[in-house]
Amino acid sequence: MRRKNKKHWARSQKKKVTRKIRFNHGILFKVLLAIFLGVATYSFVFSNFLEVTEIEISGLETLDREEIELGVREIISEKYLGIIPKNNIVFILTKGFNQELVERFKKIETIETSKNFPNKISINIKERKLILILCSQGNCFFVDKSGYAYASVNFNSEEVQQNKLVKLIDESGKLISEGDLVLRPGFVEFIFSIADEIKENSNVEITNEYRSKSLISEEVIVQTGKGWDIYLSSSFPVEKSARILKTILNKQISLKEANNLEYIDLRSENKVFYRMKGDGAKEEKIEEEKTDNKENTGKEDGE
Predict the structure, then answer these.
(1) Residue 185, preceding bond cis, omega within 30 degrees?
(2) Range of the domain at 199
């Protein structure tokens, strides 16, 4: 019995030693793993290996490349929670990064950013087109093709001086703020096409300063080079209004009367209202000239 107890005691001691060794090995493994993960994390987050050193920018037309790159470097020089550097390519969150860049440079319409490991980011920028200037209550903003007021206007800037932009004055005095949807895209397109259509279809020159008594009505008053006004509505295609303008100038109003014109109102379908200086308004029911159709018909008859 004593021998059996001795064996039992020896076996028990051996198990304790084995457990102790395993326990020590487990602790050692965990310590080594923690050290490894700590070093790896430090190297991954804080080392220069994944630091963005190369910035590629494409798609620029009028924006300054150096200013964009400076803006990018300022954004990625910041830190998350004051600890994690944003210039680590892994931690550049493209959605938030793009938004920050758009907020800094209002002329950016869209932006795409891609990461090229280990240390390069590629940025493709699409600029907003300079469409028109909208002014109300003395404040003026650039408006893009989508109808958004995206930046206030500095009339001394090169982009204004070098581009003959349409200036639309809202006489209703509606408050405009940056980022507001101020014009319907279709109305923007209508405004943008007025000058070319009027000149092409009626041979009348107009200035680049327009007025609107109410943007909601989508009606525009443009001034001709001779000082009289044309009233237009987006309810009717501008090319049609221009052809009717040509018809009335050719048939209803003499050259002498044209010099005394105050305005021609083309906001009603197949009706024209006009007024001479010092006279009352007159109304004419008129059909637009269909010169092209007549010419085509004549050719067909001749054939």
Answers:
(1) no
(2) 132-292
Cβ atoms of 76 and 87 within 8 Å: the answer is: yes
Q: Using alpha carbons only, how large is the chain's radius of gyration in Å?
A: 36
At residue 14 the predicted structure's pLDDT band, cuts being 50, 70 and 90, is low
Note the residue count of the chain: 303
- Two tokens at 7? 């064996």
Short-list 202, 203, 292, CA closest to 247: 202
- The mean predicted confidence, pLDDT, of the chain is 82
Q: What is the pLDDT of residues 160-214, one digit of tens each?
A: 888 889 999 999 999 999 989 999 999 999 999 999 999 898 889 999 999 999 8
Bridge partner list, 206: 224
CATH number reported for the structural domain that contains residue 264 in this entry? 3.40.50
Query: Where do runs of H (alpha helix) occur along the chain?
Result: 2-46, 65-76, 94-104, 158-161, 185-202, 238-251, 255-258, 291-302
Does residue 204 lie in a domain region? yes
Which of 101, 127, 153 marks a domain boundary?
A: 127
In this prediction, residue 49 carries a pLDDT of 74
Element (H, E) at 166: strand 166-170
> First vs last Cα of the chain: how many Å apart?
133
- Using DSSP's 3-state secondary structure scheme, residue 205 falls into coil
Render the burial of 15-43: b for 16+ CB within 10 Å, e for the rest. Answer: eeeeeeeeeeeeeeeeeeeeeeeeeeeee
Q: How confident is the model at residue 303 (pLDDT cuts 50, 70, 90)?
A: very low
- Which of 100, 127, 154 is the last residue before a domain boundary? 127
Check whether residue 76 and residue 192 sit in a common domain. no
Residue 222 DSSP one-character state: E
List the structure tokens of 214.
Answer: 């109410």
* Non-local CB neighbours of 278 within 8 Å, separated by 6+ positions: 260
| Residue 180: half-sphere exposure toward Cβ, Cα within 13 Å | 11
Q: What is the pTM of this model?
A: 0.70
CB-CB contact of 143 with 183 (8 Å): yes
